Amino acid sequence: MLTVENTIKWLDLFADKVAAEKDYLSELDQAIGDGDHGANMSRGTAAMKEALGKQNFGTVQDVLKTAAMSLLSKIGGASGPLYGSALIGMAKEAGNADTDLTSIVQAGADGIQKRGKAEPGDKTMVDVWLTVLHALKEGKLTDAVIDQAVQATAPLKAKKGRASYLGDRSVGHIDPGAMSSGYLFKCLIAGGIL
Amino acid sequence: MKKIINKPEDVVDEMLDGLVFTSASLIRRLPGTNVILRKQKSEGKVAVVSGGGSGHEPTHAGFVGSGMLAAAVCGPVFTSPTPDQIAAAIKEANQGAGVLLVIKNYSGDIMNFEMAEDLASMDHIEVKHIVVDDDIAVEDSTYTAGKRGVAGTILVHKMMGAAAEAGLSLNELKDLGDQVISSIKTIGVALSAGTVPESGKPGFVLKDNEMEYGVGIHGEPGYRREPIKSSKEIAKELTDKLRDAFKWNASDRYAILVNGLGATPLMEQYIFANDVSEILTKDKIELPFRKVGSYMTSLDMAGISLTLFHLKQDQWLDWLNVPVETTAW
Ligand SMILES: Nc1ncnc2c1ncn2[C@@H]1O[C@H](COP(=O)(O)OP(=O)(O)O)[C@@H](O)[C@H]1O
Ligand SMILES: [Mg+2]
């Protein structure tokens, strides 16, 4: 179950992780995109962490909503509206009584797919979200599962986003958005929230 | 990296203040945002709003002004602006007849602008959008994000601005926009990459003697690399591609835009324009509208793009020719 405290902890950890891996995320994006994913994500998550530290929150929904608006207004690019839509979806779901983590992550994945129209196998962050969701449902989410989901984007040919312009040349590279989404879920484990 | 800047993270903010300084009688900046608005409103007319990543100057903000854009939303370098900024532009630019958004076909731009449309609809402002995808370097297929929006966008801005000023309704403008966009095609060549200030490194590397056809305005890969050729040979390659795409006939009428990508001097642009004109004259194409200059740039990328716009109606040529008051047209 998510609480106000552990949700903030989760998102703060995510912001720290993104800040630490900023250059690596951009490097991944340089290979098959335009090289800005690290800059985009660190701009957004730093703003999110600041916003989360500034006020007291009464509900998980408020935390997620505040996080969503920071990401939406600060990331930009393709990943801004995607992470923004994910967190808006999660915030809406958290509004319902007795919702567990799985249904919240489900709502996040739905938000991303509704906005970006990517299917599994298109070599996007959706691949990680759906694998994580599946593992959560089975009660089997581990770092190894997440790593594997991220690595599994490498052999795929991109069908959505900037990487799709490369066609076959996108094969062999990890998708940057998959990597950053992997960090999000690893922080769930690192934060002891699972 | 050698650039006349201060801090890399401040380039957009400082550039916009400099732009407003340059054209203070025409434009203003919406406080607290990266939105440039025109000072002279046209009450009761549809407002045409465009935007996208920065680094393509004078696009987009240079085309804000009477007869053209009502507002431009300027994102970080090569990165789409965010929905809150676009929504603020929509709200402020609205002149009571709705807002037409001109979006270039990139996933990020589309998603951010669509989210802004959702936000604006909560304020009961009628918003529609058109998507420019004039770059014929990439295939349009259901398996990719589709063709990219490049230099032809400035002709779309001009057409939409003029037609809005002429009093077309939002629905009529959207239909016209779709027709105009399908009549515009662009193809380019790059000699060297631009350098994003925050990354400090060129987006890609071409050897001293190399060029690449079909590179996108954010340095997206093109369709062929080869040793640099003469302007005549480049003109032949690019016009061949456009001829294949348009399948034109003698005496068809086209507008032509030769566009420098940032670091290519006007001298080279004129030489190239001269070579293109020779080829098109042989094809007996009529070119009643001609424009040469750096209008849709990619920071300091060296290279050129060639845009043709099939003028299917006399009215379209009139709209291209109506005078406007902007920084850059
Ligand atoms: N339509 C989409 N659906 C899901 N994810 C997408 C889509 N388009 C792009 N992405 C994700 O966004 C990432 C790129 O984000 P980023 O570099 O920040 O934005 P941009 O591509 O605009 O530069 C990709 O690695 C991919 O995971
Ligand atoms: Mg990117």
Any chance you could write out the topology, listing elements then pairs?
The complex is a heterodimer of chains A (194) and B (329).
Chain A lengths: L3 H17 L1 H11 L4 H18 L5 H15 L4 H16 L6 H16 L8 H14 L4 H9 L24 H15 L4
Helix pairs in contact in A: 1-3, 1-4, 1-9, 2-3, 2-9, 3-4, 4-5, 5-6, 6-7, 7-8, 7-9, 8-9
Chain B lengths: L10 H12 L4 E3 L5 E4 L8 E8 L10 E2 L4 E7 L5 H11 L5 E6 L2 H16 L4 E6 L20 H13 L4 H12 L2 E9 L17 E4 L10 E4 L3 H16 L6 E8 L5 H17 L3 E8 L8 E9 L3 H8 L3 E2 L3
Helix pairs in contact in B: 2-3, 4-5, 6-7
Bound molecules: adenosine-5'-diphosphate and magnesium ion.
The site of magnesium ion (MG) has 7 residues of chain A, from loops.
Characterization of the model:
The complex is a heterodimer of chains A (194) and B (329). Chain A has 194 residues and is mainly α. Helix content of chain A is 68%, strand content 0%. Chain A has one domain (4-190): Alpha Horseshoe (Serine Threonine Protein Phosphatase 5, Tetratricopeptide repeat), CATH 1.25.40. Chain A has nine helices and no strands. In chain A, helix 1 runs parallel beside helix 4 and helix 4 packs antiparallel against helix 5. Chain A starts with a helix and ends with a helix. The model of chain A has no long low-confidence stretch (mean pLDDT 94). With 329 residues, chain B is of the alpha/beta class. Chain B has two domains: 11-181, 3-Layer(aba) Sandwich (Rossmann fold), CATH 3.40.50.10440; 185-321, Dihydroxyacetone kinase, domain 2 (Hypothetical Protein Tm841, Chain: A,domain 3, 2-Layer Sandwich), CATH 3.30.1180. Chain B has helices at 11-22, 83-93, 107-122, 153-165, 170-181, 231-246, 266-282, 314-321; strands at residues 27-29, 35-38, 47-54, 65-66, 71-77, 99-104, 127-132, 184-192, 210-213, 224-227, 253-260, 286-293, 302-310, 325-326. A six-stranded mixed sheet of chain B has the order 1-2-5-3-6-7, with helices on both faces. Chain B has a six-stranded mixed sheet with strand order 10-9-8-13-11-12, sandwiched between helices. In chain B, helix 2 (83-93) packs across helix 3, helix 4 (153-165) packs antiparallel against helix 5 and helix 6 packs across helix 7. The longest helix of chain B has 17 residues, at 266-282. The chains are: A mainly alpha (194), B alpha/beta (329). The site of adenosine-5'-diphosphate has 24 residues of chain A, from helix 3, helix 5, helix 6, helix 7 and helix 9.
